[in-house]
Design goal:
Largest sheet of chain A: 7 strands, mixed
Oligomer: heterodimer
Order of helices and strands of chain B: HHHHHEHEEHHHHEHHH
Radius of gyration of chain B: 21 Å
Strand order of the largest sheet of chain A: 7-6-8-9-10-12-13
Strand content of chain A: 15-25%
Number of strands of chain A: 13
Shape of chain A: elongated
CATH architecture of the largest domain in chain A: 3-Layer(aba) Sandwich
CATH superfamily of the largest domain in chain A: Response regulator
Number of strands of chain B: 4
Order of helices and strands of chain A: HEHEHEHEEHEHEHEHEHEHEEE
Strand content of chain B: under 5%
Number of domains of chain A: 2
Low-confidence stretches of chain A: none
Shape of chain B: globular
CATH topology of the largest domain in chain A: Rossmann fold
Helix content of chain A: 40-55%
Chain lengths: 317, 329
């Protein structure tokens, strides 16, 4: 009887001891997480686009996995909301802020205030003097690679419809400028003036109707061969318009890698010819890792490039 | 006969009690939410944060004052009364005109009057459609909203137009007595509005036009002019707000029209804070600050930003339903 009691007591003690041990290991592990005890603010203009949403999720998930408390702010495509959110965020004094995309003219004065408040700023797809690091794709090579693919498909001759509605977004400007730069070497290729403007919201519908008008104006035999924009959502509308007009002489080219457009490129019958797919989730994760490195005293380069891939009808390159 | 009088008395007492209950309930809800935020959201009551809320509410406040004046001059009845659905789109057009002129090298001395005149022009169009052409305000201002939104696209080509000027720098960065310029705009604007609307013969006559059109006519008030005037003022408010918008965003951006819903919400919510459920400047100001404090408090509490608009909408629905119910009874 006595020995049974002792046995029970030993078992209970062992159980408690092992529980305490497990708890302390867990606590140690939590302590070891590079961002435990840190608060990081994430501000984004909107998440209605596939790229935006995946990059947003990538950074939030990675920040949480690294132990940080995250203040995630989606402005639902409203500049005033984003500005107010950033203002309140500065007052909350997080250990770091990540800002993703958005309009530089609107954001720069507020990014400056973040820096003035002494809060380390990290960006995704936004080149600004106030950030410690910008995580992005190599937009220079994205633009030129896509342009060269277009030149190849067009055999160096033909007319191009270009959408340029987002030239005020830095990554878009770089891509469009690169495309124009490549075309300069091929005098047989002409961009139709005036260029078209892609919009948010109603991107697909607007591109569909604009493209339909262009197809009417530039019929078969006019030399129109390609359509391009700095992202791929308007190209979904343009591709649908070309299909509806039953034209086989015009191809579309996009950037980002939205699932719908990638599926179009992979479809052998679709006029969608090529897309440079970025890795938005990876970009988001990388930005979070940079925050962790910086807050733990490590050095972070002024930009981090995440590889992108050109997808054509023939496959990945 | 006596019984009849008693009955009327009782029902009027009940009516007043019910109204009072709703009004007190609104104040209690407002205070309750503020106390909740103060107790739970770290930093909510810091002076820096409170000034942030005031600053963030300035644009909404200016626009809500515009629509409040339309409500005062034409009544809040959705079908019979007036409304200005074009106010946010008008502000968008004014920001476009202001930014394009600044970008084109014209100074504030040209660009600011041009923005205000644009706002007044759209306001005049509303007045013309409602008073002269006698089109239902809900439809006429909706049509004008589309005109203004279309013109904004024509002016900006749907792009972001950066703007900078000494006035914008002052509004964006200057402080006086520790209070930012934008917050001062709301404070001074509110005081001026209270003086004009609640303490001047002009304001009292405007209330009488909105309260009972026929009675106002019978005492010799030119009601048409007052209704025209209220739409013109709404246009002026849009023009003035556009300067504040550009100072905050350093540019004119598409999407100013999205402000319509919060502006309407603030003006309608504001009526709950008045004794007879009529639109007042103080009530609108409280409602504007309440809407500003809600998003701020939510962010400080770490509640996902996705909840903010939903909860705001639900609150507005409850309050508006309660007031219209009280009015009917």
């Amino acid at each position: 009887m006595q020995s049974n009691k002792n046995k029970n007591r030993t078992m209970i003690t062992t159980a408690i001891f092992s529980l305490a041990l497990a708890a302390s290991f867990y606590a140690m592990a939590a302590d070891k997480l590079p961002l435990s005890g840190k608060t990081v603010g994430v501000t984004i203009i909107g998440t209605d686009h596939d790229f935006d949403l995946k990059a947003y999720q990538g950074q939030i998930n990675e920040l949480k996995a690294l132990g940080a408390k995250v203040i995630a702010l989606d402005a639902n495509r409203n500049d005033q909301t984003q500005v107010s959110q950033i203002q309140t965020l500065i007052a909350q004094r997080p250990d770091a802020i990540i800002e993703q995309l958005g309009n530089l003219k609107v954001l720069n004065p507020w990014l400056k205030r973040i820096k003035q408040a002494g809060i380390p700023l990290f960006t995704i797809d936004t080149e600004t003097p106030y950030a410690i690091n910008n995580t992005t794709s190599n937009n220079y090579s994205i633009g030129s690679e896509l342009a060269l693919q277009m030149v190849k498909d067009m055999h160096g001759v033909g007319k191009v419809v270009m959408f340029n509605g987002f030239s005020s977004v830095p990554v878009c400007k770089i891509r469009l400028d690169e495309i124009r730069y490549v075309f300069k070497s091929y005098p047989g290729i002409k961009i139709i003036k005036p260029e078209l403007r892609d919009v948010i919201p109603n991107t697909v519908q607007q591109a569909y109707s604009d493209m339909s008008d262009m197809l009417t104006k530039y019929g078969p035999g006019s030399g129109l061969k390609a359509v391009v924009a700095c992202w791929d959502v308007p190209m979904i509308g343009a591709t649908q318009a070309i299909e509806a007009a039953k034209r086989t002489d015009v191809k579309t080219y996009g950037i980002d890698g939205s699932p719908e457009y990638v599926a179009m490129v992979r479809n052998p019958k679709s006029p969608a010819a090529a897309v440079v797919a970025q890795q938005p989730y990876e970009i988001g994760k990388q930005a979070a890792k940079n925050v962790a490195t910086y807050l733990n005293g490590g050095s972070v380069p002024s930009f981090t490039l995440v590889p992108s891939v050109l997808i054509t009808k023939a496959g990945k390159k | 006969m006596k019984l009849q009088t008693d009955k009327t008395d009782t029902s009027s007492n009940g009516y007043t009690l019910q109204k009072m209950a709703i009004r007190l309930g609104a104040f209690a809800a407002f205070l309750g939410i503020m106390i909740f935020f103060a107790a739970t959201a770290r930093g909510f009551t810091s002076s820096y944060n409170i000034l942030n809320i005031v600053e963030q509410s300035a644009i909404l406040g200016f626009l809500a004052f515009g629509i409040t004046v339309v409500f005062i001059g034409t009544g809040t009845d959705v079908q019979k009364g007036g409304i200005d659905l074009s106010i946010a789109a008008n502000a968008g057009l004014c920001t476009a005109v202001y930014s394009v002129l600044l970008e084109g090298g014209y100074g504030d001395s040209v660009a600011i009057p041009a923005a205000i005149v644009t706002g007044l022009g759209i306001g005049f169009l509303n007045g013309f459609a409602v008073v002269t052409l006698r089109i239902m305000p809900l439809l006429s201002t909706l049509a004008v909203m589309n005109i203004a939104a279309g013109l904004e696209l024509v002016v900006t080509q749907n792009t972001v137009i950066g703007a900078s000027s000494p006035v914008l720098d002052m509004l964006a960065f200057d402080k006086f007595l520790g209070i930012s310029a934008l917050a001062w705009c709301l404070i001074i604007g509110s005081i001026l509005m209270v003086c004009i609307i609640h303490f001047s013969p002009l304001g009292l006559r405007l209330y009488s036009v909105g309260g009972n059109l026929e009675a106002a006519k019978s005492v010799g008030i030119h009601t048409g002019r007052y209704i025209y005037g209220s739409y013109l003022f709404s246009g002026f408010a849009a023009g003035a707000a556009s300067i504040l918008i550009v100072s905050r965003l350093s540019s004119s951006t598409p999407g100013t029209g999205l402000l319509l819903l919060p502006v309407l919400a603030a003006a309608l919510l504001g009526t709950v804070f008045s004794r007879r459920f009529v639109p007042t400047i103080g009530g609108t100001l409280l409602a504007v600050l309440f809407i500003g404090a809600l998003s701020n408090g939510f962010q400080l509490l770490g509640i996902s930003s996705y909840w903010v608009s939903g909860v705001q909408g639900a609150l507005i629905l409850v309050v508006v339903a309660m007031t219209s119910f009280a009015k009917k009874s």
